[in-house]
Amino acid sequence: MPAARRLVLAATLNDGRILLVGGLAASTTNAVDYSASVYIYNPSTNEYSTKNNAPIRMSGGRSVVLTDGRVVLFPNTVSDGTTVTTSNKRTWLYTPATDTFVEADPVPAEVAFGGMVGQLSDGTAVYDLAPGEYRIVCKVPGHSSMNSTLTVD
User: What is the 3-state secondary structure (H, E, C) of the chain?
Assistant: First the structure.
């Protein structure tokens, strides 16, 4: 990565390249040191390409690549450069083909720090809330909330 960062949102795209979004400068927690930078790393050529910045600085969290190639980003922390918001509920949909971001509906509060574990074939996102409990939270695109809980023994 061109600049040292930690807590970067990363996703392996369908073509094998790696999307890297945001992150935090290696040795700070200042609001201005959160990043909105976006890179795509190509392991075949060992090269990074710089993409358009994300609409807000973000770090940590989860991402999932959809079957159509878009990526849903669920950052734990966002910053406007002045204020840092943790337990973030905002989500973004990134389209690598057009290098664009669209903000989607927020996730429910109880899953803001839960880990997204995958996507069902119809685009529904599934979160890990607690050991053995999974919740179907949203359907992509549009993220219309679904609050059905699935408990797994």
Answer: CCCCEECCEEEECCCCCEEEECCEECCCCCHHHECCCEEEEECCCCEEEECCCCCCEEECCEEEECCCCCEEEECCEEECCCCEECCCCCEEEEECCCCEEEEECCCCHHHCCCEEEEECCCCEEEEEEECCEEEEEEECCCCEEEEEEEECC
Q: Give the predicted TM-score (pTM) of the model.
A: 0.74
C-alpha to C-alpha distance for 43 and 143, rounded to whole angstroms: 32
Give the tens place of pLDDT for each residue, 12-32.
999 999 999 999 877 666 656
